[in-house]
Design a protein that fits this description.
about 0% helix; single chain; 6 strands; globular
Amino acid sequence: MVEEFFGERVEVEQAAASPRPVRFTWRGQVHEVAKVEHVRVDTGFGSTPARSRKWYSRHHRRYYLARDAEGDLFEMYLDYANRQKPSWWLVKRWPGGQEQ
């Protein structure tokens, strides 16, 4: 199975009581989330050099590994560093749903 990397913004409809994705629109196509396979939180510094690391430069991301109704697997994250305007990003896609 071939993994595809994107790094594109997506529009996401979240569950009423949590940030879990219910459906998302990517490149004009709506994907219904059938199952969230895994959730992880990233509050690290990424590749920021140690001398530049400050509390405010940490990541504030919640990653979701979500399977759509067609069986494809997507990795996306909610970037909530800006609490007033959080953004969603699609990172990877595994057509046919097999993560490797």
